[in-house]
Amino acid sequence: MLSRLTRPQAVAVCALPVVALLATAVFAPLPFSVAGPGTTANVLGQYRGTSVITVSGAPVRRTSGQLRMTTIVATGPDTRVTLGDVAGNWFRTDRAVMPRDAVYPSGNSVKEIEKHNVEQMQQSQDAATQAALKYLHLSADKVHVTLRLANVGGPSAGLLFTLGIIDKLDGDGSGGDLTGGRTVAGTGTIDASGRVGAVGGVSLKTQAARRDGATVFLVPKAECGDAKAELPKGLRLVPVTTLRGAVDSLVALEKGNGSVPSC
C-alpha cells in the first residue's frame, strides 16, 4: 500500500501512530501532584474566627508578634495530572511537581486520605501539647490545651503548635515574647519528646511565609537545602532539630545575643 503513495503521503501515514502516541502521552493521567504555596495561620491568634490555641488551668500571657504555621496547596488526590500539566509547571518557582505518593497515601480513596490527614493532625496536636507541657514542667492533669485549625490536615504544624503553647504560657521565660514581636513562620513535625522531623514542600512554604510577612523561618535541619533553593529575599532560615534548639534560637534572636544557627 505504501508503495502506491507519494513520499509526503507515506510520511504522513507513518507519522499518524506517532502523533497518536504523543497525544495519548500528553493527555494521559500521571502519578504526580502539582503544589504551590498555601495558606499560613498565626497559631497565637485566630483562624477563621476561632482561637487556634486555648488553654485552661494555667495563666495565659498576652502575646505580641506571630507564629505562623505554613502549608502547601496541591491538586486533589483524584485530580488528573497530565504531561501538559507537568511541563507547564516544571520550571515555575512557585510550583512544584511532586510524586503523588509524596503528597497522599498510596492507593487510598479520597475519603480515606481525608480521614488519614485528620488523624495525622490530631496526633500532631497531641504530641505538640505533650512536648510543650513537658518542656514547661507542667502536668497535663492540671493544664488543658485545645488546638483548633479548621480544614488543615497532616502533621507539619506540630513544631509551631508547640511553640505557640509555650509562648502563651511562658514566653521567653523571663517576661518577654518568644517571637520578640516578629512574625516568625516555620514547619516541622514534633514528637512528645520534642524531636523535630522533616515534612516536605519547604521551598513552597517559605514563599507562603514571606508573602504573609514572616522574616524568620524555622526549618527542620534536614531540609535546609530545599529551603535555600527558592528562598525569598528578606527571610532568614533557622535550622532546628529539637524543641529546645528552636526555643533557644528564638530567645537568642529576641535578646540579640547568643548563637543562632543558619542553613
* SSE class: alpha/beta
Which series of helices and strands comes N to C? HEEEEEHEHHEHEEEHEHEH
CATH domain fold name of the largest domain: Ribosomal Protein S5, domain 2
What's the tally of helices?
A: 8
Low-confidence stretches: 9-28
Give the SSE map.
Elements: H1 7-27, E1 32-42, E2 46-47, E3 50-51, E4 53-56, E5 66-74, H2 83-89, E6 96-99, H3 100-103, H4 110-136, E7 144-147, H5 158-169, E8 183-186, E9 189-190, E10 196-197, H6 202-211, E11 216-220, H7 224-229, E12 236-240, H8 243-255
Parallel strand pairs: 5-8, 8-11, 11-12
Antiparallel strand pairs: 1-5, 1-6, 2-3, 4-7, 9-10
Helix pairs in contact: 4-5
Domain Lon proteolytic: 130-236
Protein name: Lon proteolytic domain-containing protein
Pfam family, one: Lon_C
Mind explaining what this structure looks like?
The protein has 263 residues and is of the alpha/beta class. The chain folds into two domains: 1-27, no CATH class; 37-73 and 106-255, Ribosomal Protein S5, domain 2. It is built from eight helices and twelve strands. The strands form four sheets. Strands 6-1-5-8-11-12 form a six-stranded mixed sheet. A two-stranded antiparallel sheet has the order 2-3. Strand 2 and strand 3 (50-51) form a beta hairpin. The chain is globular. It starts with 6 loop residues before the first helix and ends in an 8-residue tail after the last helix. Mean pLDDT is 86; it is low at 9-28.
